[in-house]
Amino acid sequence: MEKYVMANFKMNKTDLEVEEYLNTFIPLVKDKNVKVILGVPFTSLKTAVQKAKKTDIMISAQNMNENEKGSFTGEVSAEMICGTGAECVIIGHSERRSLYGETNESVNKKILKALKSGLTSIFCVGETLYERKNQLTAEVIKKQVTDGLKSIYANELKNIIIAYEPVWAIGTGVVPMDVEIIETMKLIRSVLASIYDETIASEVVLAYGGSVNDTNCKEISKLEGVDGVLVGGASLDPKKFAKIVCAFETKK
Ligand code: PGA
């Protein structure tokens, strides 16, 4: 399976900066046989889509509102994202959960809406440090995955990428031990198998996120059950991010 290397710019980069980024980045990842997805701010979706037009790079939003349209000042709908030509959307990032009150229920509504609109969801799950220290990881992840995928059919999973991002690893420079990542990926697959079945579970793309950088990416790329990565801080430099993309290259 081709690996997925995804960027989450968060609230960084003006439209002009995104354009400059792509001028540098695109030639560095040409013909790399890796699925690259860039999560840019709403304000740069259209620019990024246009810049990436003749490439295989996909452009993603970082959030969306679950409603169709209406009186939701400041919000952006799935249809609006589709209108820019973007193909993906990050849903349920831990910063959205902790800073903006998103819940498993609202995450599920957003995924359902994204699917209906033809957007691929990058669905984020992950435990806090408190939860990990108190042996609550399995329970929390199980609930996030089960509730997030409520009412979603097996044939829709091809449009969902699950990103396991332990909250304590995001932006901290701390990466879980290899065994912790492998175990949690196994856990997510077993939860998927219990909702759907083993075969379906084995086909879902599972990515790891949290302090991935251009030095640890090679080791992470080799971990069992890891189909890709979601990168925040280290994705902001096009050369560093291109290096991460190259680390995930698989032979054709
Ligand atoms: P980080 O962020 O790579 O800066 O830790 C990852 C994320 O939040 O998706």
Low-confidence stretches: none
Mean of the pLDDT scores? 97
- Extended strand count: 8
Strand order of the largest sheet: 1-2-3-4-5-6-7-8
Strand portion: 15-25%
The CATH topology is TIM Barrel
| The first-level CATH class name | Alpha Beta
| Total discrete domains | 1
Q: Main sheet?
A: 8 strands, parallel, barrel
Name the helicity range: 40-55%
> What is the helix tally?
11
Spell out the helices and strands N to C. Answer: EHEHEHEHHEHHEHHEHEH
Radius of gyration from the CA trace?
17 Å
Distinct ligands: 2-phosphoglycolic acid
CATH arch. level architecture? Alpha-Beta Barrel
What overall geometry do the principal axes of the alpha carbons give? Answer: globular
**In whole angstroms, how far apart are the ends?**
10 Å
Short description:
The chain is of the alpha/beta class. It has helices spanning 15-28, 45-51, 78-84, 94-100, 104-117, 129-133, 137-148, 178-195, 198-203, 217-221, 238-247, and strands spanning 4-8, 35-39, 58-61, 88-91, 120-125, 160-164, 205-209, 228-231. 2-phosphoglycolic acid binds next to strand 8.
